[in-house]
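Hi W.,

Here's what went into the run:
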Amino acid sequence: MRHDVFIAGYGGQGVLLAGNLLSYAAIHEGNNVSFFPAYGVEKRGGAAMCTIVFADGDTGSPVVGSPSVALLLNPLSFEKYAGKVKQGGVCIVNSSLVDTTGVELPGIKIIPVPMNQIALEMGDVRMVNMVACGAYGEMSGALALSSLEAALKKALPERNHRLIPANVTAMAAGAAAARAKKA
Amino acid sequence: MNSAVTEKIFVKGNEAVAMAALEAGCRCYFGYPITPQSDIPEYLSRELPKTGGEFLQAESEIGAINMLLGASAAGVRAMTSSSGPGISLKQEGISYMAGSELPGVIVDIMRQGPGLGGIDASQADYFQATRGGGHGGYRIIVLAPNSVQEMYDLTMQAFDLSDLYRIPAMVLADSVIGQMKESIVANPRPVVELPDKGWAVRGRQEGTEQNVVKSLKLGDGEMEKFHWMMHDRYQLLADKECRWEEYLTDDADLIVTAFGSTSRISKTAVAMAREAGMKVGLLRPITLFPFPKRAYAALSEHCKLFLDIELSTGQMVDDVRLSVARDAEVAFYGRPPGAGSLPTPEELFEQIARHYRACPAATEVTL
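Here's what came out:
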């Protein structure tokens, strides 16, 4: 099986950490992974985007034209990437910042998840990327929550390991929110 | 080091280069920061001193290449790295190294140019790398990895080939391969028989000949002799060290050819074409100098259409045209990508399909 996903948002939303996390989780499940980041020269603000491809065999092209899943965290990335999702694919959108009411993309399923709001309820808006990762695990069925949890130890520096339980809760909340929208 | 490692690690292409340099026994690194390769000096500034090696951030790229020349003249395994603008500055030193028959590894993580250009991927420094880059008529060994694993493996090979032939070796990649992360196995350094560096300037011993490392050759006939010797050495390289990868070429009516990052995108596009019933294959040169001419010559005996794909307006395509049989046609598709814009597999598939349909030998397909 080969899976590909776009993650895009503002610099500072944790897009690249989310990409690393999905990559480590995919490795944890025995896959080969290609993680390809693209971001501006700014530390915060600007646009951040990454592509993750994982497969039990050859990952092939690290450059993906139309991913099966896109995690879009802000309005700009929604505008730019939502339409690129493959037919039959899924677009998971941060509905706290992107208004998807009335938006229809033929052949693409839009899953609005209020990521900022959920992260705030969990105690810190900076966990928006964790909510997104949880939603991805749920919608794609490609990565188990337990793998994402294991990946946190690899993706986070040792000094931040004390925050792992809070991040796991945020991922679970993201998964639950996506599950509710799936039906 | 030589510690047997089998566990997979998840690292950037640039980090893999730095790790491989350590494993290869690189004792000195000299460099100057520039995007998109700064992860290499960053990693080595942290790790090289731990192994007793020297990391030095030079005052400029010109300083760094001349330090590489000096370390190499003393018989030490050493490396420098940069990107387009910095590699241009290094050309004088590379020419002096070539003229002095000095080994040394130069890593070029290509960005866009000319001038300061931009920080996104480009393959437009193919000519600069494969034609020698500096003055005087010389060549350097050029290896073109297309994965993070190959960034690791080919960097180690660059050290060995460079020492074996006493020719500077370049690892030529771009910001896609340098910045992307993949899981790799950090293989231990292979055992390679290398000649002793008896030519190195290490201080003269009592009763021994004086070693001289220089590129100035004013003696009667000295220069001509040097050039013929190097000419033979480049020929030996071409005979023994050409590396390439073939994918589904056996029955192909159209062969796509690309190196580095573009070959990764092309391979997926070729697989898409096969799924659509087109007999398409891929030929990827791994050594750009020596260029694997005989692979093209052999394949063009039965396949008469090649499609060269590059992130430029066309450079390697010249070498492909010089290498295929006279009756084979070489088409080209390429573009210099801007920020955030790289050809997708779908885009390359369209190009393959367009040329395949026009190919008289091609098996009938309905698209």
